[in-house]
């Protein structure tokens, strides 16, 4: 079973914990010069378009990448009452890679950790004192991949294989909203689409094969934040 199915209960737990702190206090303004931090859970679902594996043998081999989730932390600074910048970081995501194309059905062929730190420039709608504030953003994501492994299935097909995946930059449009629980605490939810293409290199006893892949993941997060 895909590990991502366990993400939703954890996301809902964050919301429930934040809701316990609800009071009758007015919402504090999200205004120029204010900082906030938030912690939450982010689910990444790659929307893969795979090229063919190059090199001898196994023509038409493609790849797919499963969803993964991980905790995130973000810091936001209000440049003006409506314009903000936000840096989102998190723990590594562990993605399973599965065979497609002519090896469709063989299951997992490897796994990899990835880190996607992203810097956003955002525009927040409505007044700074509004309890509910939608926002849109545009960010730059650095897709960094590490600790990639070939599965026993891939080793059976190609022999002992080292896997390396190139780090790349991508563009990340964002939509989201915050809801002020009280004068300091808030709930944040965001949806991000990242346009990211990378190349994986498989080295099997000196025979190198490459595969170009558009990952283009969609990310959904729920977080609890604090303004100061």
What does this structure look like?
The chain is built from two helices and 15 strands. With 228 residues, the chain is mainly beta. It has one domain: Porin (Beta Barrel). Residues 1-6 and 21-25 have low confidence and may be disordered. It has an eight-stranded antiparallel β-barrel. Strands 2-14-13-10 form a four-stranded antiparallel β-sheet, with helices on one face. A hairpin with a 6-residue loop joins strand 6 (93-101) and strand 7 (108-115). The longest helix is centred in the N-terminal third of the chain and has 13 residues, at 7-19.
Give a brief description:
It contains 2 helices and 15 strands. It is mostly beta strands.
Task: Based on the model shown, name its key terms.
mainly beta; 228 residues; four-stranded antiparallel β-sheet
Topology (elements, then pairings):
Layout: H1 7-19, E1 35-45, E2 49-50, E3 61-65, E4 68-78, E5 83-90, E6 93-101, E7 108-115, E8 118-124, E9 132-150, H2 152-158, E10 161-165, E11 168-180, E12 185-193, E13 197-204, E14 207-214, E15 218-227
Antiparallel strand pairs: 1-4, 1-15, 2-14, 3-6, 4-5, 5-8, 6-7, 7-9, 8-9, 9-11, 10-13, 11-12, 12-15, 13-14
**Amino-to-carboxy terminus distance:** 41 Å
The major beta sheet can be summarized as: 8 strands, antiparallel, barrel
Give me the Rg, rounded: 20 Å
Strand order of the largest sheet: 1-4-5-8-9-11-12-15
Q: What is the total number of structural domains?
A: 1
Strand content: over 45%
Q: Structural class per helix/strand content?
A: mainly beta
So what's the CATH class?
Answer: Mainly Beta
The total beta strand count reads 15
Shape, per Cα inertia axes: elongated
Number of helices: 2
Bin the helical content. Answer: under 10%
CATH fold type: Porin
Q: Which spans of ≥5 residues are poorly predicted at pLDDT below 50?
A: 1-6, 21-25
- Average pLDDT over all residues: 90
What is the CATH architecture annotation? Beta Barrel
What is the succession of H and E elements?
HEEEEEEEEEHEEEEEE
């Amino acid at each position: 079973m895909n590990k991502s199915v366990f993400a939703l209960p954890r996301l809902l737990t964050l919301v429930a914990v934040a809701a316990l702190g609800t009071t009758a206090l007015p919402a504090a303004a999200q205004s120029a010069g204010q900082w906030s931090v938030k912690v939450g859970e982010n689910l990444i679902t790659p929307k893969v378009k795979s090229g063919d594996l190059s090199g001898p043998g196994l023509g038409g081999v493609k790849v797919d990448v499963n969803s993964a989730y991980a905790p995130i932390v973000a810091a936001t600074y209000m440049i003006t009452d409506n314009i903000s910048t936000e840096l989102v970081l998190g723990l590594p995501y562990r993605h399973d890679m599965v065979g497609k194309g002519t090896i469709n059905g063989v299951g997992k062929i490897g796994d990899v950790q990835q880190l996607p730190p992203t810097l956003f420039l955002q525009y927040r709608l409505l007044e700074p004192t509004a309890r509910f504030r939608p926002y849109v953003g545009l960010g730059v994501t650095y897709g960094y991949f590490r600790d990639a492994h070939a599965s026993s299935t891939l080793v059976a097909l190609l022999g002992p294989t080292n896997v390396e995946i190139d780090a790349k930059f991508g563009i990340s449009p964002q939509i989201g909203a915050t809801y002020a629980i009280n004068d300091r605490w808030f709930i944040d939810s965001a949806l991000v689409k990242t346009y990211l293409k990378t190349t994986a290199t498989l080295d099997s006893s000196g025979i190198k094969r490459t595969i170009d892949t558009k990952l283009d993941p969609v990310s959904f997060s729920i977080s609890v934040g604090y303004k100061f």
